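During the second half of the funding period, the structural biology subgroup turned its attention to how the target accommodates small molecules. The most pressing case was phosphoribosyl ATP, which had performed well in the primary screen but for which no bound structure existed. We therefore specified the complex as follows and requested a full 3D prediction, including the ligand pose.
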Amino acid sequence: MSDVLQQLGQILEQRRNADPESSYVAQLHHKGLNKILEKVGEEATETIIAAKDAQNSGNCDDLVYETADLWFHSLVALSHLGVQPQAVLDELSRRFGLSGLEEKASRK
Ligand SMILES: N=c1c2ncn([C@@H]3O[C@H](COP(=O)(O)OP(=O)(O)OP(=O)(O)O)[C@@H](O)[C@H]3O)c2ncn1[C@@H]1O[C@H](COP(=O)(O)O)[C@@H](O)[C@H]1O
């Protein structure tokens, strides 16, 4: 699973210097952090709506699709700030074995 995130992270890095005419990710980097964060917010809202719809309909297809959009735009935001997906995976790994309460106590 993390191979996918690592590969996508590499593509997003390459797109930082790509032509915005030919790449959606390069367009986002070119427009800047505020535009990227606007997309993260939009996709978070669409994910919430899809989750509520899935609860009612029992069909989770749209939820999976919107969550992929949310993860993707979150990764673009990280990349824009020079953070690799591995840093998030490392943080999740650090939390293995901690209870939720222990994790909360470990926060800065
Ligand atoms: N995983 C994705 C991915 N997921 C979603 N999207 C794009 O994210 C956008 C989702 O935004 P919306 O649903 O709001 O659709 P929209 O109306 O087109 O968006 P806006 O014009 O409002 O910004 C769509 O344009 C999708 O195509 C993605 N675009 C790219 N990737 C990956 O990034 C790689 C590099 O992409 P390019 O930079 O375009 O080559 C691709 O090969 C993929 O692996």
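Two results from this model are relevant to the next phase. The two ends are 29 Å apart (CA to CA). The mean pLDDT is 94.
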